């Protein structure tokens, strides 16, 4: 059918922009509240040596479950501590508890409403169907725009993803209460409120708790996805290991998540009927535990409270001593950590991990409101064309003198496909050329279309790349790339140039580590995305000798800390003042 495409994406973008602008104070208040909740919870769980929390969780497991689960809990948590993931585990536990708390506060009342009102059920049920079938990654996109990068969008996305079972099973549990019991309560003159709280909710409790248990598991399954927008914890450790192809570290972080999941699952399943409930009253135990946690939380909140200093002339106070970064495995992040150490910023400053998308979303939000922000930046990037930005001076040279982007091919590719190798070897362009394509892509043009537009407008440059290269004759060329705006642009452009020469080009999107691995093991033929000598140094050194380096396809790139030009700070040295 040749019907014109509905501009659904544009409609959604306009709706999100309108919501972001109109409800920004509301989202700001929610973000502040959740950050305050999580910060104090992490501080509470981190109080004292790790063995204190390990013993407390073990005692809860022992009281609710059997001895085997308690022993598993104690040994499992000790193993996590021994492997060096305790701080990440505390952050993960706090993230899951915060998500589950919000899930309960939202889910159970909605489930009760659905059980009492048919119209509410008819409206909410399709919404829940939509929420459960929509890929979890999609929730991160508006969450970043509404709440910025960091843990808050991770928690919000987790709540949206995990709340459905609590709502559904609360509704189901109440509706399955036998009618004769409902009629008996009505015969004794019970009010609707009494019927709900004295009959329906107690009898529906097992089903409701099953829903809460499922929500806990779903929230835990989101910890890795939430790390893409800067949520700390074990998810970030897994993401870092995947991007750096560190199998051992990935397994360690993964097994830590499994241990936490088993502990949460067994405890939550047995909360209603604890193993030792007849020995010690569960009401007394839960009341004491709740009081201790509440008092501890209040004390921690008072101790951690610091008045806002956003009006201060100190740039650190203005940005809350936060640098917004990108993927945890990126060489730029490694260089930034080195710079923070060399400039003495490690004591007060934090480097927020996330993704390049989360970083640019945070920058967009701050720039539009003329708020201070510091991000990890690199050139070429479309943000330098879209916004007025500047690099902070780096007098210590922590970020080096700039980088080049190299073209790599698998071993044997040059002899098997000399024509494509010649095109790839002659591929060379400028940062300004790349930024043209990047801006088009950012503004909504599909990468292939933006690349085709550039190739048509720059026939002279493309002719230099293909000069003397024989026609492809339908030979296949498999190009790998990492999902950075720069590499999406360059890979699509060289793909179009190869297609004009008669090659059948296949593109594969990978993380940085797997991208290098695919060239080394021969599953991909080439890539034009190796940033050297800093960003991809670790991957380059790891697989050196298993690929051919055709040299740089672009020079003049740059890394460093970036700020909007309206900020009155010019050097990394100024951050310590």
Automatic annotation (TrEMBL):
<dbReference type="InterPro" id="IPR007210">
    <property type="entry name" value="ABC_Gly_betaine_transp_sub-bd"/>
</dbReference>
<feature type="transmembrane region" description="Helical">
    <location>
        <begin position="41"/>
        <end position="62"/>
    </location>
</feature>
<comment type="similarity">
    <text>In the N-terminal section; belongs to the binding-protein-dependent transport system permease family.</text>
</comment>
<comment type="similarity">
    <text>In the C-terminal section; belongs to the OsmX family.</text>
</comment>
<protein>
    <submittedName>
        <fullName>Glycine/betaine-binding protein</fullName>
    </submittedName>
</protein>
<dbReference type="GO" id="GO:0031460">
    <property type="term" value="P:glycine betaine transport"/>
</dbReference>
<feature type="transmembrane region" description="Helical">
    <location>
        <begin position="92"/>
        <end position="115"/>
    </location>
</feature>
<keyword id="KW-0812">Transmembrane</keyword>
<feature type="transmembrane region" description="Helical">
    <location>
        <begin position="284"/>
        <end position="302"/>
    </location>
</feature>
<dbReference type="Pfam" id="PF04069">
    <property type="entry name" value="OpuAC"/>
</dbReference>
<feature type="domain" description="ABC transmembrane type-1">
    <location>
        <begin position="89"/>
        <end position="268"/>
    </location>
</feature>
<feature type="transmembrane region" description="Helical">
    <location>
        <begin position="69"/>
        <end position="86"/>
    </location>
</feature>
<dbReference type="GO" id="GO:0015871">
    <property type="term" value="P:choline transport"/>
</dbReference>
<feature type="transmembrane region" description="Helical">
    <location>
        <begin position="136"/>
        <end position="164"/>
    </location>
</feature>
<dbReference type="InterPro" id="IPR000515">
    <property type="entry name" value="MetI-like"/>
</dbReference>
<dbReference type="InterPro" id="IPR035906">
    <property type="entry name" value="MetI-like_sf"/>
</dbReference>
<keyword id="KW-1133">Transmembrane helix</keyword>
<dbReference type="GO" id="GO:0006865">
    <property type="term" value="P:amino acid transport"/>
</dbReference>
<feature type="transmembrane region" description="Helical">
    <location>
        <begin position="247"/>
        <end position="264"/>
    </location>
</feature>
<keyword id="KW-0472">Membrane</keyword>
<dbReference type="Pfam" id="PF00528">
    <property type="entry name" value="BPD_transp_1"/>
</dbReference>
<dbReference type="GO" id="GO:0015226">
    <property type="term" value="F:carnitine transmembrane transporter activity"/>
</dbReference>
<keyword id="KW-0813">Transport</keyword>
<keyword id="KW-1003">Cell membrane</keyword>
<dbReference type="GO" id="GO:0005275">
    <property type="term" value="F:amine transmembrane transporter activity"/>
</dbReference>
<dbReference type="GO" id="GO:0043190">
    <property type="term" value="C:ATP-binding cassette (ABC) transporter complex"/>
</dbReference>
<feature type="transmembrane region" description="Helical">
    <location>
        <begin position="216"/>
        <end position="235"/>
    </location>
</feature>
């Amino acid at each position: 059918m040749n019907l014109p495409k509905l501009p659904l994406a544009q409609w959604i973008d306009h709706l999100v922009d309108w919501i972001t602008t109109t409800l920004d104070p509301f989202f700001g208040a929610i973000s502040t509240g959740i950050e305050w909740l999580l910060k104090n919870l992490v501080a509470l769980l981190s109080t004292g040596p790790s063995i204190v929390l390990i013993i407390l969780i073990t005692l809860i497991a022992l009281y609710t479950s059997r001895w085997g689960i308690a022993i598993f809990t104690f040994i499992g948590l000790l193993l996590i501590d021994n492997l060096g993931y305790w701080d990440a585990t505390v952050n993960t536990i706090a993230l899951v508890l915060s998500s589950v708390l919000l899930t309960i506060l939202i889910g159970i009342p909605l489930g009760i409403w659905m059980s009492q009102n048919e119209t509410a059920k008819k409206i909410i049920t399709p919404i829940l169907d939509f929420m459960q079938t929509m890929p979890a990654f999609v929730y991160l996109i508006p969450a970043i725009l509404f709440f910025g990068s960091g843990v808050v969008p991770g928690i919000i996305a987790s709540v949206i993803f995990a709340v459905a079972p609590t709502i559904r099973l609360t509704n189901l549990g109440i509706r399955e209460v036998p009618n004769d019991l409902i009629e008996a309560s009505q015969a004794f003159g019970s009010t609707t409120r009494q019927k709900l709280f004295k009959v329906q909710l107690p009898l529906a409790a097992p089903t409701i708790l099953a829903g809460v248990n499922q929500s806990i598991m779903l929230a835990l399954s989101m910890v890795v996805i939430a790390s893409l927008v800067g949520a700390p914890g074990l998810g970030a450790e897994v993401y870092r290991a995947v991007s750096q192809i560190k199998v051992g570290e990935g397994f360690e972080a993964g097994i830590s998540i499994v241990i936490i999941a088993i502990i949460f699952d067994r405890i939550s399943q047995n909360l209603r009927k604890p193993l030792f409930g007849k020995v010690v009253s569960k009401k007394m135990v839960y009341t004491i535990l709740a009081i201790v946690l509440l008092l501890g939380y209040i004390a921690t909140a008072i101790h951690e409270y610091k008045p806002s200093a956003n009006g201060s002339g100190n740039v650190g106070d203005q940005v809350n001593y936060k640098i917004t970064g990108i993927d945890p495995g990126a060489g730029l992040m490694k260089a930034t950590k080195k710079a923070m150490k060399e400039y003495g910023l490690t004591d007060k400053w934090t480097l927020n991990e996330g993704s390049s998308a989360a970083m640019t979303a945070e920058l967009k939000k701050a720039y539009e409101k003329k708020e201070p922000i510091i991000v990890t930046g690199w050139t070429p990037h479309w943000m330098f064309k879209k916004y007025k930005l500047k690099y902070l001076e780096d007098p210590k040279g922590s970020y080096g003198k700039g980088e080049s982007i190299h073209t790599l091919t698998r071993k044997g590719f040059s002899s098997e496909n000399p024509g494509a190798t010649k095109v790839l070897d002659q591929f060379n362009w400028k940062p300004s050329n790349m930024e043209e394509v990047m801006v088009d892509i950012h503004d909504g043009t599909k990468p292939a279309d933006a690349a085709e537009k550039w190739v048509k407008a720059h026939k002279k440059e493309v002719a230099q790349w293909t000069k003397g290269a024989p026609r492809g004759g339908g030979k296949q060329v498999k190009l790998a790339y990492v999902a950075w705006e720069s590499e999406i642009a360059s890979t699509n452009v060289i793909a179009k140039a190869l297609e004009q020469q008669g090659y059948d080009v296949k593109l594969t999107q990978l993380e940085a580590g797997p991208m290098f691995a695919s060239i080394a093991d021969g599953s991909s033929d080439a890539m034009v995305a190796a940033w050297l000598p800093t960003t991809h140094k670790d991957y380059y050194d790891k697989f050196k000798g298993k690929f051919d380096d055709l040299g740089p396809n672009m020079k003049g790139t740059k890394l460093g800390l970036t700020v909007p030009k309206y900020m009155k700070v010019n050097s990394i040295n100024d951050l310590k003042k």
